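Incident log, structure service

09:12 report received: a user says their structure output differs between two submissions of the same chain.
09:20 pulled the input from the user's history:
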Amino acid sequence: MKWKALAACVLAGMTLLAAGCGGGGGDKAKQQAASGQNLKGAKLVMYVSFHEDTAKDLADEFKKETGADVSFIRLPTGEALARIQAEKDAPKADIWLGGTTDAHEKAKTEGLTEAYKSPNAKMISPEYQDKNGYWYGTYLEVMAIGYNEKRFKEEFEPKGVKPPLTLDDLLKPEFKGEIIMPDPRKSGTGLTFISSVIQSQGDDKAWPYLKALKGQVAQYTPSGFTPGQKVGAGEYLITLNFISDQMLVSQKGQKLVSTIYNDAGWTLCPVSKIKNHANDNVAKAFIDFCLTKKAGEIMVKSTNGVSCNPDVAPPKGQKPLKELPLYKAYDMAKAGADKQANCDKFFAD
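09:34 re-ran on a clean worker, output below:
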C-alpha cells in the first residue's frame, strides 16, 4: 500500500467528513443499499473473525433490510482460514467476515475465495480493497502496547519502573511473565505483530528481538481480543493487540493505557466471498451492505476501528490516520505468504 496515496485519501476524508479513512465521494445516491432487495427466505452462513456482538448487530440489520436469515460461527483468523481450506471442495459458509488482510490474501491465492465487483466498491478507496474484488476492507486496526493502569500504579510505579511505551521496554526484566499476546499461528492480530516487526526491522534485528520477547511472554491466546480482556482484569500487566480492542476494554471500566508504538503493524478487517458456496445472491447483497454507511457505523460503534467508508466518522478518542506512527510499508500479502515459516521460527526452541 502506498502511503502517499493513503495519506491523501485520509486528508480528503477528514476535510469533508471528519472521517478517519477511505476515499471517494459521499453521495448517498451512489450507494446501492442492500435494503432494495427482497431476500426473504434466503439463508446466509458466515465465518466471523471479529467480535460476536458486531457480527450479530450486522446480521440483525441485514435481516431487517432484506428478510434474509443469517447465521454465523465466530472463529479466530487462523482457525477460520484452516476451516475454509479444509472445506474447499464443499464449503459450509458463504462469507468470511473480519480477520486480517494477510489471511484473506492467502485465501485468495489458494483459490478459496472468488471475486465480486460490488456496486458499492466506489465508496471505498482503492487502497482499502483488492483491485480484482476478492476482498473489501471494512475498517482498519492498529497494533498497540496496553497496560493495566491500576496494577502499574500500585505495583510497579512505586519501585521506579517506567511504563512500557516502546517495543524495547517490553524486554525489561520487571515485565517478565507479565506480558500476554495472541498466538500468531491462530490469530491474525498475533501474526500482524510478528510480521510487522520482521518487515520493519529486518531479519538481523527482528529475530533476536522476537526471541528475547518470547522469553517475556507468559501466555499466547487463540483470539486477538483475549489479551486485552485478561490485562483489563489484572491477570497480566501488559497486552500486545489492536488498540481498538484495548479501547473496548477501557470503555467497560477496566482502564488500559494504550500506546501505538513506532512502526506499528496494522491491518484491514475485510469481507470475502467463499468460492463454491451455495447462496450467491444473498452473499453478494451482504458484501454490498458491509460497504454502506449504516454498516460502517455499526462496526465503528462496536469495534472502535476506523471505517473505510468516508461517510463514517472515526471512533471517539481515536487519532486520525495521518497522526499514527504506522509502519507505512507493511506488506500484508507477504505477511500471509511468510506465515508458516515465521511462526515455525518464532516458536522453535
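09:41 both user submissions now match this output. Likely a transient worker issue. Closing.
09:42 reviewer note: Residues 142-265+338-342 form a domain with the D-Maltodextrin-Binding Protein; domain 2 fold (CATH 3.40.190.10). Residues 24 and 168 are 39 Å apart (CA to CA).
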